[in-house]
Design a protein that fits this description.
The complex is a heterodimer of chains A (about 350) and B (about 270). Chain A has about 350 residues and is α/β, with parallel strands linked by helices. Chain A is built from eleven helices and 13 strands. The chains are: A alpha/beta (about 350), B alpha/beta (about 270).
């Protein structure tokens, strides 16, 4: 709401429903609309429609619900529709344990939608970061005209912490670019130098053509290699070439570290506890925590592990993001420390696996 | 722009010719829609820039590519949710959903149901050609029992859906069935549907000689058109109980529901 949210559409699913319930109370007071749909498919498509109506829009969901949303996510990518999805991970596969935590869906968020694209995903580790990165997610989605996913989990959804809220006037709030040319000359998919096209809304007289098919700058369907290449590469490059405004990570004690743990989201809290404990015992260990999960911030990952002899990737799943870390740090020894725990994995259970390799 | 036809201002004429087959009824459905819109505009009820056209995927859904309004051609079955989100944040727009029977009543059936349940302020034009056209003539939930299609080579053995009957059980303010064989009635119903608050649905019976007619002995467009025309029966006060479509029997057209229940936007206190 600080970022200017005006539309929320959703379908109840644990552990994300609190977001829905809170907004159902608060958003109408601020002139916004909240509606419960028949399923997650309708929810994401309504969010896309609302965004084209000119407002900031979002939904929240969890595993099975996100599975239903990916078709719409692909549409949002193709039509360059700004929106935010709060994805609160729970234990899967399938219904799994709806009330319990896990980080199983890190690859799903990146790859589930059909087609080729880059996607922006943030992974907060605290309530404060949930707040800050939500504002940031809206800013990124509005700036690049991309869907942005805020990936948290049941642990973070249920935690109570102190949080400093910003006054809307002191928060940095970015709104989408509007057309600068006349209605006759405007093309809804004609990019500027940053590869992002200014966005006209419905009802402003621009006669926009929102097209799910491969389209040219007017939004006209074209089934040629030339247009397909041009469009797909622009959708990818508008994210890649604007990485500088997306990157966000934190490093702790990495300068002299022999061992660096890579961990993200709620699990990084445990990893941080372990690092501090090991440091007090004189072990030179550090922590690198990407807040931007996708695209991978290779530069800060390389920098933070520069002096490390070994890198451990700690995740509350069967070990998935480790493949990305191994890819980036291909000349280093990278170990997967998958700790499946329905709560936040305790530092001891991480250390138990890690010590084998230290 | 050179205006060669009175309805040209409502078309992206640079995109013509359209992709519909010779003998297809969708052209009549869309020209009826445009005449109804034009009438509203001439009478001062509507402005061209206050109209939004939303469609999913299918032959009928291609209409939005040619319409000179703010338009969205989205994914299969999801036109209604997109349109709902748009209407909720831009209540002053007249949001029209255009789609086929497969798009709206099969994959999008759940959204159709719930939009009608909410009495959501949308006008839905559903062209029913009783077949999947764009994908090559597969059976649709609207395909009458017994009809041959590419996925029912021994004849369709399923019961079909009667969308008029189904939607009439919900809270829609307007439910009508028309046919492209009777365009004056079709235009009148779309005109009425556009003047309604809340949910309005016009089912448009339309011939597909290429993929529906072909397998049942009506490959010739004129023959199929004439056959369909002979089956259509207009009723001033049609009965929902008699509205089922059984191929070979009379197909009843008429206004089944014409109500003025409080619409969704009225209920939530937004101007319409």
């Amino acid at each position: 709401m600080t970022a200017g949210l005006k539309f929320y559409a959703g379908y109840p699913i644990t552990p994300s429903s609190e977001i829905f319930e809170y907004l159902a109370m608060k958003l109408p007071e601020r002139g916004g609309t909240v509606i419960q749909f028949e399923d997650e498919i309708a929810s994401i498509n309504a969010v896309i429609g609302a965004s084209w109506g000119g407002v900031k829009a979002m939904t929240a969901t969890s595993g099975p619900g996100f599975s239903l949303m990916v078709e719409g996510l692909s549409l949002a990518i193709m039509t360059e529709t700004p929106l935010v999805i709060a994805y609160v991970m729970r234990a899967g596969p399938s219904t799994g344990i709806a009330t319990k935590s896990g980080q199983y869906d890190v690859m799903q968020v990146r790859w589930a939608a059909h087609g080729n694209y880059e996607l922006v995903v943030y992974a907060p580790w605290s309530v404060q970061e949930l707040y800050d990165l939500t504002i940031n997610s809206f800013n990124v989605s509005e700036t690049l005209r991309v869907p942005v996913i805020l990936l948290s989990d049941a642990t973070l959804a249920h935690i109570w912490e102190r949080v400093v809220l910003k006054d809307p006037n002191e928060a940095l709030v970015i709104n989408r670019k509007k057309p600068k040319v006349s209605k006759e000359l405007y093309k809804p998919f004609e990019p500027e130098e940053d590869l992002v096209p200014p966005m006209a809304s419905f009802g402003e007289g621009y006669r926009v053509m929102v097209e799910s098919l491969t389209h040219d700058e007017r939004g006209y369907y074209k089934a040629t290699t030339e247009i397909q290449r041009k469009l797909v590469w622009r959708l990818i490059n508008k994210v890649r070439k604007n990485m500088h405004m997306l990157v966000d990570s934190a490093s702790y004690f990495v300068e002299d570290a022999d061992y660096v743990i890579v961990s993200y989201g709620s699990t990084a809290r445990s990893a941080y506890g372990l690092v501090k404990e090991l440091r007090s015992r004189g072990v030179k260990v550090g922590l690198y925590r990407p807040k931007l999960l996708w695209p991978v911030d290779e530069e800060s990952l390389i920098k933070s592990t520069r002096n490390a002899k070994k890198v451990f990737v700690v995740e509350n799943n069967a070990g998935v993001y480790v493949n990305e870390v191994s890819r980036v740090l291909r000349h280093k020894e990278v170990f997967s420390i998958p700790v499946i725990d329905v709560e936040i994995p305790p530092p001891e259970s991480i250390y138990e696996v890690m010590k084998e390799w230290m | 722009m050179d205006v060669t036809h009175p309805l040209d201002p409502y078309l992206r004429t640079d995109r013509l010719p359209h992709l519909w087959c010779p003998g297809c009824g969708i052209g009549i459905a869309i020209s009826s829609l445009l005449r109804a819109i034009n009438k509203h505009i001439m009478e001062g009820h509507l402005k061209q820039d206050d109209i939004a056209a939303v469609s999913g995927i299918g032959c009928t859904a291609r209409a939005t590519l040619y319409l000179n309004f703010d338009s969205a051609h989205v994914i299969h079955g999801r036109a209604i949710p997109f349109a709902t989100g748009l209407k909720l944040v831009k209540p002053n727009l007249k949001v029209i959903v255009i789609g086929g029977d497969g798009d709206l009543a099969a994959i999008g059936g759940n959204h159709l149901l719930h939009a009608a349940r909410r009495n959501m302020d949308l006008t839905v034009i559903m062209v029913n050609n009783m077949i999947y056209g764009m994908t090559g003539g597969q059976v649709a939930p609207t395909t009458p029992t017994g009809v041959y299609t590419t996925t029912t080579p021994l004849g369709n053995y399923e019961y079909s859906i009667n969308v008029v009957k189904f939607i009439s059980t919900l809270n829609a303010n307007y439910v009508a069935r028309a046919s492209v064989t009777h365009p004056h009635i079709l235009e009148k119903y779309i005109y009425t549907a556009l003047s309604k608050e809340g949910f309005s649905l016009v089912e448009v019976i339309s011939p597909c000689p290429e993929l529906f007619g072909r397998h049942i002995g009506y490959k010739d467009p004129v023959e199929l058109f004439n056959k369909l025309k002979s089956l259509i029966r207009f009723e001033e006060k049609p009965q929902i109980e008699k509205s089922d479509i059984i191929w070979g029997n009379e197909i009843i057209i008429g206004e089944f529901i014409n109500d003025n229940k409080k619409s969704f936007l009225r209920i939530i206190g937004r101007g319409v």
